[in-house]
């Protein structure tokens, strides 16, 4: 094996190791999603295909929350758009960190972009060069675990019962709490989180549906811009 292949393998393994805690943490979330999907009448094949093709935990849970027979495809698509609109911002952000990626590699990376993968890739890019092999080490195992645990959850959904009864419903917010904590930078981060949370809670009380997600994201972006402008003015 030549030196270049060894370097690529080392980079890949490095990404796998860095992502390992979050890959493990996504296991109960995938199981819960599979169980919820099964309770809504989706077959194991349908559940697995949804996780494989959509690969967006937040929008998948929202879709299951509003699922009905027959399915309202317009409502499902619109809800998924609202929940995943943040991927535009994440894609723009991480895209600037990929000078070593070829065009096809960058497109493939974006297809496997998820909140956890984006967060780890951003942290890596702040420390050193982000490579395709390291990113693949983040994304591929995480993607496979998500798909496989969704399948497993759908198969044993009848035995799990209500996920809330055994506390598995908290797995999803717990992962995002850890991600937010890793990005904590003091007052600036606190202001952004406070604005986002306040907007989300307010809109959730006033409007039905998933508008609170878009409102929280928009408020966070505005708060970030205001904070940055304020800091530059003071400097």
Automatic annotation (TrEMBL):
GO terms for biological process: L-valine transmembrane transport. It is a multi-pass membrane protein. GO terms for cellular component: plasma membrane. Pfam families: AzlC (PF03591). The chain crosses the membrane at residues 20-38, 73-92, 133-159, 166-184. It comes from the Bacteria. Keywords: Cell membrane, Membrane, Transmembrane, Transmembrane helix, Transport. It is found in: Cell membrane. InterPro entries: Brnchd-chn_aa_trnsp_permease. PANTHER family: INNER MEMBRANE PROTEIN YGAZ (PTHR34979:SF1). Belongs to the AzlC family. This is Branched-chain amino acid ABC transporter permease.
């Amino acid at each position: 094996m030549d030196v270049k292949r060894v370097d690529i393998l080392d980079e890949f393994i490095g990404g796998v190791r860095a992502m390992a805690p979050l890959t493990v943490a996504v296991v109960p979330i995938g199981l819960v999603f599979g169980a919820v999907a099964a309770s809504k009448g989706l077959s194991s094949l349908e559940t697995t295909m949804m996780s494989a093709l959509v690969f967006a935990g937040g929008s998948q849970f929202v879709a299951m929350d509003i699922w009905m027979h027959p399915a309202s495809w317009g409502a499902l698509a619109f809800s998924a758009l609202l929940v995943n609109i943040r991927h535009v911002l994440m894609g723009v952000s991480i895209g600037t960190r990929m000078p070593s990626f070829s065009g096809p590699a960058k497109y493939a990376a974006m297809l496997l972009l998820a909140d956890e993968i984006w967060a780890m890739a951003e942290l890596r890019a702040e420390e050193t060069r982000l490579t395709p092999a390291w990113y693949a080490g983040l994304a591929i195992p995480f993607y496979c675990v998500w798909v496989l645990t969704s399948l497993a959850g759908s198969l044993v959904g009848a035995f799990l019962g209500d996920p809330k009864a055994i506390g598995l419903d908290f797995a999803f917010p717990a992962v995002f709490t850890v991600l937010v904590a890793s990005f904590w930078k003091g007052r600036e981060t606190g202001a952004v989180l406070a604005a986002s949370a306040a907007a989300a809670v307010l809109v959730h009380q006033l409007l039905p549906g998933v508008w609170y997600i878009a409102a929280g994201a928009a408020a966070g972006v505005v708060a970030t811009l205001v904070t940055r402008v304020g800091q530059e003015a003071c400097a």
